[in-house]
């Protein structure tokens, strides 16, 4: 049992972060805290992707000498290299993530300017008027 | 059967559709032009439909496919003998009602006349479409158009009462349409086709239970429009509408489309064989017999003339369905004849009620005593119509009733003969007090000297009353209703 | 050849021009609208070109930068997405023309360039989601569309910023769920290309991980398309957004989501996965049934026209789900046809809501009295749209409903059939309530029949640049209905998987 937990620790961390993020998005009243929760949620997914590309003892995915003479004879063992694709994907996802945060912060500023608060219940109260 | 491909059916439909939009765009500023369009569209439509009559009488079928929708489904117009009866009736009476409407609406200087004439033309577009449809899919399309186009007419007065009646109308008819939609889907699923065939096409498809369910759903669906009891409640409420609309509802388009569709289901989708195998015809016949009798009893208790006529309509519609449900050649012929004949007689009665309203603003029978002295022409026409509906020769109602009675005998069901006779007796019981009161009682609320409604109102009444008489004397005159009905019956029962 | 580059062009054109609009807008704000209109017109031509090629030559494969799949990003356009592309292009062009005058009232002039930039970005995202054949690329474009949606909704009336924020939180959960689904698929197969996944996945169908990934997809896309019970963001966001924005987002965004779900269930995963292996279709069917009834009842309770329409959208998404859940040719045909039809119907109704708001400043149904005198054309368009949603032939809404009904009958899912039929009755109540308020003028039983004290009948005061797109959409509704047979024969029947 312990072995399962330890050997797949990346998944556990991912799951815990995901739940933490989801919890604060749902339960927190302060919009900024919701936003932080959302960010944790996104990062959990990004970490999940990065962890699946990594391998123990593997190196960067650059094939030495491939462009020089005899490059064709080098045998590539996938196990020796980190899978670069999830990482490349996550670069895009990070951009997306930052864009989301950017828009959310801009919205928060606008909300704060208009309602003078970022507490959800107070805003709803204000809107009902 | 030989098929003639021709665009005439489409043109007949377009006449009223284009007419409707011409009316709409002409608007209220030029009422004369607007009403010219109405009458022009009506006459054109009638001419187009008459031009197809010779083919249909030769036993040919006029066909026009508008567009193919899916495997086995097309928007298709197909004029057969039975469709021809209804198309002729609707388009012929439209001319009469148009003239009458002009007189009536101007006489009362009603509001929103453009909307009224527009929707009227659109309703006729729907009704003729129903008549000319070659398959259930097309029929459903026009059926819905008819339902929607009639709604503004029912609420025309826009009083709280009228709006309530309109809601009731929509609630009943759209629920009915939903049942039809369901049955249409099921029919397509079972048979893979929706084309009408004389004698039906569902034979051999689906289990007994499923077919019974289908039949019940169909009858509930179309029955809502045909105002079979107990789903008739919208019809008396809709009497709040202006009288020409009631005439349209009762005689020309709406409820007639309902019974037309019921007959299509009974005779052209299920067919006599399937129905007698399933034993459903007798159930249906008992069911509508109930309506026949109860509607007439209720009619006896109504003091509002239009409401009394409304229950008389419910009675006649059920008689038509009863005739078809008997599945005998004479019964079918009688039922098909009663569709146009009842149209002529009932429209006369309604227009009389309208004429009385235009002139005296009276609606209750008890107040109409002595009206025969003020409006002798109107009341004479009323007498002809009422006599016809009771089944007194030589008015045309007698002929259809005669064949219906023969049909009941042919089906060897004496009980339905009794139903028909009792219903005729009750007809007499609620019509003759009106006539007696009109001519032989001393006027209380009306003048005792001659003072008729405007010419545009009286002329159509006289025409339809004379029409009812002539069809009684020469049932095959002019537009050959008799021959068409006989041919249909022959086709359905297979030679 | 330009013809071969069309799949890229349709995404790249609006993307680049969205930036151009922003820059040009700094210089002269009046230039923004012509650029947007021309761009979207070009996109429409590209889309039609694509559709024409697909009908003639079958599926188009386009590899970005000539990187062969499964390594590079591939755009695959078959009959299904070609149809959706064209519909998106048509509706967005018409809404853009409609926008020109509609935004005058609701958006400060200084923000016009930003508005048009976001408008084009939104359309870019929608085109991209539809055209792409790569799961991760789809995520990125989904987010492009969502970002522009968040920002553009926040431009709306009071409370829109808060609604947009809530939408953002929900939308991000949805996007992350989708991304997780992509992650699961990637772990299992090492591929992100849809066509490749189609080949690889059937061997893994019994893997529990795949089921988890599939569920993440459903939840993710479900949030984006606003399926009950994940729709809670939708009514607020679309009601409070500027009317043009609702007219753009409400018809297109949710429907493109529906396209994605069809793509995932029927292309990426083999249909047998959700039909035979797991009871996915049953679950979807029940969700749809409950969702439709819920949304219909909620819609009945609304007095704000736009909010009522928002619940109608939720119900319409349920219709599409019913088509999917029938899991047969007829049902799926209905679902695909309904995607297209619903784009037009919702565009019609939301533009009408916008036009009424433009002229009268109200969206409250009970304040619509006498509207038929002052806005006859707008109301005529509304009647067409409303009858279509109710399902009156020959409007298009009836035809998709017909196939959906046939689908449920064939699948013998009687509950779904009942829901379809009952909901159309509730629709009738919904829309006739509006029509009654707008058209009828309650009067006393014996009041004078003459008009007095009411506004005279005049043509709408809404500018022609708003009326014409509305009329075109209404015409589209009728034409789509009449020619639905042709569309099915030439396009949709090839879009439905062979195995059904």
Question: Keywords for this structure?
Answer:
heterotrimer; A: 129 residues; mainly alpha; Helix Hairpins; B: 495 residues; 74% helix
Any overview of this molecule?
The complex is a heterotrimer of chains A (129), B (495) and C (500). With 129 residues, chain A is an all-alpha fold. Chain A contains five helices and no strands. Chain A is elongated, with a radius of gyration of 22 Å. Chain B has a domain of 217 residues. In chain B, strands 1-2-3 form a three-stranded mixed beta sheet. The two termini of chain B are 12 Å apart. Chain C has a two-stranded antiparallel ribbon with strand order 1-2. The longest helix of chain C has 32 residues. In chain C, 65% of the residues are buried. The chains are: A mainly alpha (129), B mainly alpha (495), C mainly alpha (500). At the B-C interface, strand 2, strand 3, helix 5 and helix 6 of B face helix 17, helix 18 and helix 20 of C.
Layout of secondary structure:
The complex is a heterotrimer of chains A (about 130), B (about 500) and C (about 500).
Chain A: H1 2-7, H2 9-27, H3 31-53, H4 84-115, H5 120-128
Helix pairs in contact in A: 2-3, 3-4
Chain B: E1 3-5, H1 8-26, H2 31-57, E2 61-70, E3 73-79, H3 81-107, H4 113-132, H5 136-154, H6 160-191, H7 208-226, H8 234-237, H9 243-252, H10 254-278, H11 280-301, H12 305-325, H13 329-360, H14 371-374, H15 376-390, H16 397-410, H17 414-440, H18 455-473, H19 481-492
Parallel strand pairs in B: 1-2
Antiparallel strand pairs in B: 2-3
Chain C: H1 6-27, H2 32-57, E1 60-63, E2 74-77, H3 79-106, H4 112-131, H5 135-154, H6 160-189, H7 194-200, H8 208-225, H9 233-240, H10 243-268, H11 271-277, H12 280-300, H13 305-326, H14 329-360, H15 371-374, H16 376-390, H17 396-410, H18 414-439, H19 464-482, H20 484-495
Antiparallel strand pairs in C: 1-2
Helix pairs in contact in C: 1-2, 1-4, 2-3, 2-4, 3-4, 3-10, 3-14, 3-19, 3-20, 4-5, 4-10, 5-6, 5-10, 6-8, 6-9, 8-10, 9-13, 10-13, 10-14, 12-13, 12-18, 13-14, 13-17, 13-18, 14-16, 14-17, 14-19, 14-20, 16-18, 16-19, 17-18, 17-19
